[in-house]
Amino acid sequence: MSRENGGFNAKERKVFRSLSTPEKIQRFLDREIGYHHKNTCYSPRTVLRQGMAHCMEGAMFAAAALREMGHPPLLVDLEAVRDTDHVLAVYRVDGCWGAVAKSDYSGLRSREPVYRTLRELVMSYFEHYFNYAGEKTLRTYSRPVNLGRFDRIGWATREEEVWEIPNHLCDISHTPLIDPAMERRLARMDERLYKAGRLGGKSSS
After folding, report:
1. Distance CA 3, CA 133 (A)
2. What does pTM read for this prediction?
3. Which domains does the chain have, with CATH numbers?
4. 104 — phi, psi (to 5°)?
5. Cβ-Cβ contacts under 8 Å for 160 (sequence gap 6 or more)
6. Cα–Cα–Cα angle for 118, 188, 194, nearest 5°?
7. What's the pLDDT score for residue 3?
C-alpha cells in the first residue's frame, strides 16, 4: 500500500481491497457512485462518503483504487471544443494501455488494456465524444500525470476539495488528435450512436 493511500481508514480500505481489478473499479463507479454536475472536486475519500462523483472525481477515485492494485495513479485529460473536458484513470498491462472513467455518456467509460500507445487509447473515445448538437468534439489529450506528485497535499484522503489537480491538468500541454482539414470534414453523429451514447445521462463527461 502506498504512503498516500495508507491514509484511508479501515472502512475505506475494505472498499478498496474489494476493487481488485479495473473491471471491479468501473462497476463500482457505475453502480455505487452516482453522477452529479456540481462544481466540486472531491477527494476519493469524499466520493466514498458522498456516493457521488463527476468525471474528474471519478477518475481520481479510480486512480486511487488502481494504486492499491500496484499501478501508478495516472490521469489523462481529454480536451474538447464546444464541450467539457473528460478525464481518464489510465494503466498498463503487458505494455498496453487501458482506462477507467466515470461518465454519464455510455461510450466514455472504461477501455480494456489492449491499446499499444496512449494515442490509440484516446482515439477509441473519438466517435463517442460529442455535444448536444451532435458534433464530435474531442481534439487533444494530455500526457499521463502521476498523482503521486500531489501526495504532499493528501489528494486521496483530504477533506477539502483538491482543485490543484484539475488546474494542473488544464495548465499542461496537450497533443492534437486531428488537423484543421480533418476537423472540417467531420460528419455529425449518427442518430443511433447519439441515442446509444445518451443512455447514460445528461452531459458528455
Report:
1. 45
2. 0.94
3. 5-200 (3.10.620)
4. -100, 15
5. 43
6. 75
7. 45
